[in-house]
Amino acid sequence: MAHGAEKRLADLGIVVGSRIRVVRKAPFGGPIEVEVAGSRFLIGRRLAERIIVEV
Amino acid sequence: MKEITIALAGQANVGKSVIFNNLTGLHQHIGNWPGKTVEKAEGTLFYKGYFINVIDLPGIYSLTHFSLEELIAREYIAEEKPDVVVNIVDATALERHLIFTLQLLELERPLVIAVNMIDLAEKRGIKINSQKLEEILGAPVVPTIAIRGKGLTEVLDKVIELTEKGYSPKRFEYGREIEDRIRKLEDALEGFESPYPRRWIAIKLLEKDEEVMKLVERENPEVLELAKKLSAEIEEIHGHDSSIAIANERVGIVRQIVEKVVEIAEERKPSLGERFDEIATHKVFGYLLMVIIFAGMFLTVFGIGDYIVGFFDELTESLSETWFAYFGSGILSELGWAAVESFIALLGIVIPYIAPLYFLLFLLENWGYLARVSFLLDNVMHKAGVHGKAGIPMILGFGCNVPACLSARIMETWREKVITILMTTLIPCSAVTVVVMGLTGRYLGVFWVTGLYLFTLLMVLLVGRLTSKILPGKPVELIMEMPSYKTPNLKTILIMTWLRIRQFIYIAMPLVILAGVFIKFMDLTGVLSVVSDLMSPITVEWLMLPKETGMLLIFGVLRKELILLTLASLLGTTDFSAALTPNQMVTLSLVTIFYIPCIATIAALVREMGAKGATLITVAEILLAILIGGVASRLLLILGIT
């Protein structure tokens, strides 16, 4: 993952071990909306694809 | 009188601007940060015998150097040393906001924390123990409801209390492996002169912050070497980049704090806003709603605007009669009138169009809807090499390029902003639409206009893509907050609109008047037709347009619709088919769409990118227009359209 993006996610509280919920996906390959610790974010699809989650 | 300076710091969508406007009202000054194109808002107020300066720091997510805004904020806090930093955090998302608070604490300035939107949090079953939070953070914590002005006087009380009593910042320690290394660096930095706290520099060095590394390298290159070695050790232990390891630990510290101060009630039902989002982000209804909202916005603004413009036309006419009756018709009188007319013309676009569009934009932002637009448009914008946020200025551009360019500040980096502004200025605004409809639409039909617009959009995306390839740096991935819907605060929106419009008029006025007088002067002295003739290798030979086109295009710089009006007055009729062939109509429409932004837009560009950037974009677009116009004209010939 691009180092800058990883840092930005960390500043938003999205780090290894965070509980993350996918709220919805934008149509036509758009961003993913996720919920982390009560906040919702949009994450670009390409970046989101590089976030690995355990279900 | 005692004077205090406070700086407001907080992330986007936290209600920072509502607090700022509530505190300072109209006692504000909007400008840019010195040497930067990031907006700086300052205001003042009196409270309990204190004269308080309030600086609204740009909305930011972290104090690690990522964007210009963040750099400005931390430089301001460290170098200008405001008496108190007021950190506004979102009660509904305490964890995320406290990560930022922790970084503010590391700058060791007196800190007051305003936990805003406490009412929304309660509604969602989130209970925050502010007293406990205050103890843990070692800084006063005040619950606030900014849109109702609740808690703001308490914030000011705490600010005064801190300045009177003094403040000792609390330190949060990282895990052993990192903390030991921070201390080692702190020791090595002994005697290092800097406005920043030593511990902060040590942490930033381990986070590989470029600005701080440069700062240290100049004076203590050996400390930088040590820092690199220590970062490498952290990476060895944690298996992550050292900056990520540190960020992870910050999140860990914050989670422990949140566990102690936040209580969350049972699972809640989806809120009204969340249910509305099902529609607002839907793959069919979402786009439909977006079109309805923006089309509605434009139709309302332009519908009402037309009436107001009628008033301005009458005003200009009656004033002009009085003017010439009084001053005669000498050249000085003509030039003086050109200045007055230009100024009225500027007000004639600001009052009916720019101000209402700006107001509606702030309204949509304040409400939270703009994030949904980014969600829907991210995919298309990616084709142009930028992310979804760029869609907002582009949509606004169809109304008027001025507020559109001014809104491009939502882009994170200089690179994204340049690309967005470049694309935005190519979007045909309402004045351009008038010209295109008056030529191509009237004589060739709506089918052709649609074709031209589709072609334009394609070109805009192409230009975006090319620029993003040419400009240095990597595209920024979309990471943005999807804020919950909030009740818009009318007072804040009105103040924000008014101050920004006023500032725009200040910037645009000299430029608009100068251009108006200058072109009038050229016209009166006959220089204009000479210049127009000199342009004929381009206008006549390359673009295959009549030789008067040069004159039309020069007038069009003032306001695009003047292209049509000047043509009519040159011809003495509004039947343009007498002077232009269908081929020429399409070519002239295309040139009108792409060439130089109007003078008001250029003023907006100056505000957003400085004179150099504005010139660069202007020249680039003239070249682009010439290229597209000439090629299109020949292609049309091949297709048999003469």
Q: How many beta strands in the DSSP annotation of chain A?
A: 3
How would you spell out the order of helices and strands of chain A?
A: HEEEH
Query: Can you give the helix content of chain B as a percent range?
Result: 55-70%
Shape of chain B: elongated
Oligomer: heterodimer
Low-confidence stretches of chain B: none
Q: Which strands sit side by side, in order, in the main sheet of chain B?
A: 2-3-4-1-5-6-8
Number of strands of chain B: 10
Task: State which percent range the strand residues of chain A make up.
Answer: 25-35%
Decide which structural class fits the backbone of chain A: alpha+beta
Number of domains of chain A: 1
Q: Helical segment tally of chain A?
A: 2
Helical fraction of chain A:
10-25%
| Alpha carbon gyration radius of chain A | 11 Å
How many H/I helical runs of chain B? 27
Which structural class should the secondary elements of chain B be placed in? alpha/beta
The main pleated sheet of chain A reads as: 3 strands, antiparallel
Question: What is the fold's blueprint, element by element?
Answer:
The complex is a heterodimer of chains A (55) and B (642).
Chain A: H1 3-11, E1 21-25, E2 32-36, E3 39-43, H2 45-48
Chain B: E1 2-10, H1 16-24, E2 28-32, E3 39-47, E4 50-56, H2 68-80, E5 84-90, H3 94-106, E6 111-116, H4 118-123, E7 126-128, H5 130-137, E8 141-143, H6 152-165, H7 176-188, H8 198-206, H9 210-219, H10 221-238, H11 242-261, E9 262-264, H12 272-280, H13 285-327, H14 331-367, H15 370-383, H16 391-397, H17 401-407, H18 414-426, H19 430-444, H20 446-470, E10 479-481, H21 490-524, H22 527-534, H23 536-542, H24 549-558, H25 562-571, H26 582-594, H27 599-638
Parallel strand pairs in B: 1-4, 1-5, 5-6, 6-8
Antiparallel strand pairs in B: 2-3, 3-4, 7-9
Helix pairs in contact in B: 1-21, 3-11, 5-11, 7-8, 7-10, 9-10, 13-14, 14-21, 16-17, 16-18, 17-27, 18-20, 18-27, 19-20, 19-26, 21-27, 22-24, 24-25, 26-27
